[in-house]
Amino acid sequence: MNDHEQKSIPPANQDWNLIRLGLVILVIFAGILLGSSMAAIISAIYQKLSGVVLSKDQTLFLFATVVQIFSVGFLFLYLSQTKDIPVIFRLPHSIKEKIRLTLFCIFGMILCIPVVGLFSYLNLSLGKYLRANSHFMQFVNTQVNGMTPFSFLEPKNEKQPIVQALLNTDSTIAILVMSFLAIVLAPLLEEIVFRGFMYQCLRKYIGRVFAAIITAFLFAMVHPNPVMTLFPLMFLGLMFVVAYEKSGTLVAPMVMHGTFNATSIILMLLLPPNYADKL
Fold first, then answer.
1. What gap in Å lies between CA 106 and CA 260, rounded to an integer?
2. CA distances from 158 to 129, 154, 248, 262 (A)
């Protein structure tokens, strides 16, 4: 392996193994559980003291905010004890390399946004076809012991709940807070888990290509309505891996991820609500 190739590969932390990955997932899960409990308590106290019943969107906004703050807080508390934060947020030392990293993120997103748009259009077309396919829908609605285990495959042309809440609210504060969650906290949490621990761990055992594909697939599947967003989000996940490998720092995919989410929010707020349905 030559010097240039060595430089392009992020130096893997030898402690980032499957056990550490499991611990990170447990820490985040604990944050989700505690955050959900705290959000429920805050909601109950607020409604009891004010006498005002929170709407579905307000409840979703409250839970999303508290749960994400707790998840990120727990994760960074854990990372501060393991001394991984300097590894995660390492930056180039020279001005030239910092400029190169900035340009890489900018041009990376210029490439990603139209390609993701194309994949989204193809996904919408595929969803319309599948919904019109009676045999496929019969399979989706197949019942096993009174349950429909394949219902998650149903291609629903609907927005993510948090996106719907963002579009329905008239509160500037709610828009700013949810934008902060999507642009800052979500990229921090997801890039550390998927491109940091998960990709680094799998790369040791199965190589870069398969590790990239698996983490991109899992990244897409954790989002709501995965059938309708699978290909766009998988492409994004692969591009974030490329950004990580080429830059040698998780800061690059974090910045690209946040920029993509910011662009998506701006477009959602500017375009007509049913714009996607007309495509």
1. 11
2. 15, 11, 37, 20
Pick the closest to residue 108 from 258, 271, 277 (CA basis): 258
Q: What angle do CA 167, 117, 231 make, to 5 degrees?
A: 100
* Predicted local confidence at residue 241, as pLDDT: 93
Task: Report pLDDT for 237.
Answer: 92
Q: Which two tokens stand for residue 90?
A: 């390492």
∠ CA 148-149-153, nearest 5°, is: 95
DSSP letter for 16, please: -
* Structure letter (DSSP) for residue 150: T
d(CA 135, CA 139): 6
Q: What is the pLDDT of residues 164-190, one digit of tens each?
A: 677 777 778 878 888 888 899 989 999
Tokens for 40? Answer: 């429920």
What are the tens digits of pLDDT across the range 123-174?
777 777 776 776 666 666 665 555 665 555 555 655 666 666 777 777 788 7
Nearest to 130 by CA among 227, 232, 231: 227
Please name the amino acid found at residue 62. Answer: L
Rg (CA), the chain: 20
Token digits of residue 124: 């919408």
DSSP 249: S
Phi and psi of 144, rounded to 5°? Answer: -125, 115
Q: Alpha-carbon distance 207 to 245, whole Å?
A: 13
Helix and strand numbers (H, E) in the chain are 13, 0
